[in-house]
Design a protein that fits this description.
Strand order of the largest sheet: 3-2-1-4-5-6-12
Strand content: 25-35%
CATH architecture of the largest domain: 3-Layer(aba) Sandwich
Largest sheet: 7 strands, parallel
Oligomer: single chain
Helix content: 25-40%
Radius of gyration: 20 Å
CATH topology of the largest domain: Rossmann fold
Mean pLDDT: 96
Order of helices and strands: EHEHEEHEHEHEHHEEEEHEH
Structural class: alpha/beta
Distance between the termini: 27 Å
Low-confidence stretches: none
Shape: elongated
Number of domains: 2
Number of helices: 9
CATH superfamily of the largest domain: NAD(P)-binding Rossmann-like Domain
């Protein structure tokens, strides 16, 4: 039985994860945490999630939760996640990171700390998206240099970062397949007289509208034809399901940095 602590337990994703853990025979919720200023501190985590009393109080911060857990599922903020990674690494535990908006420097720091614990960090928790990452790389290799590549992503109006982490991961998968450097060849949007499209460009375009959970399309444009591969998320539950799947898989692994492709055997 995997003992799970949820950081960000009173949030929308935290509550979803708590509900899914109750359906999972291989896992049990043993601890829950929130920001110390959260009004949810002291409440029963099950009641906050709408599944009834679980006798697991929401604590002020993760530090008090680690002794009772094998793995932490973290859906908080970038700053809180970095503090939680430090705590988990010092304790030699495991952590599934679901927070978004991490900077490149923060991701590098997480990678450096992963030798101290089992760390799961992925651009997207969706099983379908991670299959898509493999598919677009394969398609890019098969189509080769004669096809222009553009990544278009649409999310709800409240999303703060752009392009999305998933869009960047898709663009990086294409760049690796075509032996390109995304830092040099990636183009985020276009405006004005930008001239003819460069053949090595990998375009990324962000749309923000309404309550869209997350749509991603990779366009391979050739002369006379176009191939489009699309993934559409219709519910945030799929991200919670991916996080729980990762939480069940991670604790038995050696220390290191993992993502959903490792869980799915797509490496």
């Amino acid at each position: 039985m995997i003992r799970v602590a949820v950081a960000g337990a009173a949030g929308r994703m935290g509550g979803q994860i708590i509900r899914l853990i109750q359906e999972e025979p291989g896992a049990v919720l043993t601890a829950a945490a929130e920001h110390p200023a959260s009004p949810a501190v002291g409440r029963d985590a099950g009641e906050a999630a709408g599944v009834g009393t679980l006798e697991v109080p929401i604590r002020a911060g993760l530090a008090e939760c680690l002794d009772a857990a094998d793995v932490v599922v973290d859906f908080t903020s970038a700053a809180a996640t970095m503090a939680n990674v430090d705590l988990v690494c010092r304790a030699g535990k495991a952590i599934v990171i679901g927070s978004t908006g991490l900077s490149a420097e923060e991701k590098l720091e997480i990678g450096r700390r992963a030798s101290e614990a089992r760390v799961f960090l992925t651009p997207n928790m969706s099983v379908g998206v991670n299959v898509l990452l493999k598919v677009v790389a394969d398609v890019a290799r098969l189509l080769g240099e004669d096809y222009d590549v553009e990544v278009i992503e649409t999310h709800h109006r409240f999303k703060r970062d752009a392009p999305s982490g998933t869009a960047l991961a898709l663009a990086e998968a294409v760049a690796e397949a075509l032996h390109r450097d995304l830092a040099e060849d990636g183009v985020c949007g276009r405006e004005g007289l930008v001239g003819e499209r460069g053949r090595r460009e990998i375009g990324m375009h962000a749309v923000r509208a309404g309550d869209v959970v997350g749509d991603h399309t990779v366009v391979f444009g050739g002369l006379g034809e176009r191939v489009e591969i699309t993934h559409k998320a219709t519910s945030r539950e799929l991200f919670a399901r991916g996080a729980v799947r990762a939480a069940l898989w991670l604790p038995d692994r050696p220390n290191g940095l993992y993502d959903m492709r490792d869980v799915l055997g797509l490496r």
